[in-house]
């Protein structure tokens, strides 16, 4: 990949890393990138090292033609779609200290996931050398881990977080939604409904009561298996029951049918 002319012209480069199967959530990142940079690169790479479930990796959607068309329509300047051997030409070790939050929530359910995520994001940063990189709040913990990786290596890259884009009925857009059956799609709505419930009742009820009611809503929904619904400090991801505290976030993960989904909402 040759980005020298862009660098020589002193243009600001923004990178939007994705795993493809693009939807309007991804397009919102491209659009946000266009507002804050002169040249926008989107990477499309299904990164094997961040998958803990081989079946999840195998069935991850890869609609390449559709993705290229969407990126053209969005006016993306360059698409970086490397192969696995380009990104991983040889066996390599990767382990960095991402802080204690690495092992909580998603990190507890997908062991080693954030080592894989930060490994590939560092490789993408090295290849593209962007000034800025944009990520979705939908993957809340991922943004924290990438910020920690940037700090670990002292990289001169600004990490920008973009809001969650939802379907009209509230379901957070996700590439994995394609795996939902019609019934799953209905049942999956309970995740955003539970988050909305917590946001609406935040002033009136205790954190414990909110978590209990939201969890019950989800557990009572057929075909949905709750992994966690929790209200935590938005930086440490440790439980936080003091509602006066700033930076509280509610995070949820559940299996809907055979598909594991995540979502979250900022509370204060
Ligand atoms: N609904 C959304 N709104 C905003 N950003 C999103 C949304 N969905 C994904 N993103 C962001 O797009 C980037 C690429 O994500 P990715 O390619 O994994 O898509 P995805 O829809 O999150 O897929 P999946 O969750 O099924 O892996 C990430 O920074 C992610 O947070
Ligand atoms: C950041 C990322 C592209 C790394 O593979 C992936 O985790 C994703 O799509 O969120
Ligand atoms: N969107 C986060 C990437 C993953 O689930 O592996």
CATH C-level name of the largest domain = Alpha Beta
- Portion of residues in beta strands equals 15-25%
- Structure annotation, total helices: 10
CATH topology of the largest domain: Rossmann fold
Shape: globular
Task: Please provide the count of β strands.
Answer: 8
If you compute it from the alpha carbons, what radius of gyration comes out, rounded to the nearest whole angstrom? 19 Å
Strand order of the largest sheet: 3-2-1-4-5
Q: Ligands in the structure? A: adenosine-5'-triphosphate, pantoate, beta-alanine
Uncertain ranges:
none
Q: Give the rounded overall mean pLDDT.
A: 97
| Count of folded domains | 2
Main sheet attributes: strand count, strand direction, barrel closure: 5 strands, parallel
CATH superfamily of the largest domain: HUPs
The helix/strand order is: HEHEHHEHHHEHEHHEEE
N-to-C CA distance:
42 Å
Structural class call reads alpha/beta
From the coordinates shown, what is the CATH architecture of the largest domain?
3-Layer(aba) Sandwich
Helix-residue proportion: 25-40%
Explain the layout of strands and helices.
Elements: H1 4-8, E1 13-18, H2 24-36, E2 39-44, H3 54-59, H4 64-74, E3 78-80, H5 84-87, H6 106-109, H7 113-128, E4 132-136, H8 140-153, E5 158-162, H9 182-200, H10 207-219, E6 224-233, E7 248-256, E8 259-266
Bound molecules: adenosine-5'-triphosphate, pantoate and beta-alanine (BAL).
């Amino acid at each position: 990949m040759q980005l020298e002319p862009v660098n020589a012209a002193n243009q600001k480069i923004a990178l939007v890393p994705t795993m493809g199967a693009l939807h309007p959530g991804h397009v919102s990142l491209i659009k946000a990138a266009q507002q804050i940079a002169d040249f926008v690169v989107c990477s499309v790479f299904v990164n094997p090292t961040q998958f803990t479930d081989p079946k999840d990796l195998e069935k991850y959607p890869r609609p390449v033609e559709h993705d290229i068309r969407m990126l053209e329509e969005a006016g993306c300047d360059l698409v970086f779609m490397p192969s696995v051997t380009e990104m991983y030409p040889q066996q390599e070790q990767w382990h960095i200290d991402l802080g204690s939050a690495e092992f909580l929530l998603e990190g507890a359910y997908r062991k080693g996931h954030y080592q894989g995520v930060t490994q590939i994001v560092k490789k993408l940063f090295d290849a593209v050398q962007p000034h800025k990189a944009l990520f979705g709040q939908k993957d809340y913990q991922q943004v924290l881990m990438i910020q920690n990786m940037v700090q670990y290596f002292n990289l001169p890259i600004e990490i920008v977080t973009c809001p969650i884009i939802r379907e009209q009925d509230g379901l957070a857009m996700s590439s994995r939604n394609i795996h939902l059956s019609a019934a799953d799609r209905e049942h999956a709505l309970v995740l955003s409904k539970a988050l909305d419930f917590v946001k609406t009742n935040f002033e009136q009820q205790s954190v414990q009561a909110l978590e209990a009611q939201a969890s019950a809503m989800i557990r009572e929904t057929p075909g949905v298996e709750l992994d966690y619904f929790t209200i935590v400090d938005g930086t440490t991801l440790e439980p936080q029951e003091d509602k006066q505290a700033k930076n509280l976030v509610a995070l949820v993960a559940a299996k809907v049918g055979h598909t594991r989904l995540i979502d979250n909402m900022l509370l204060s």
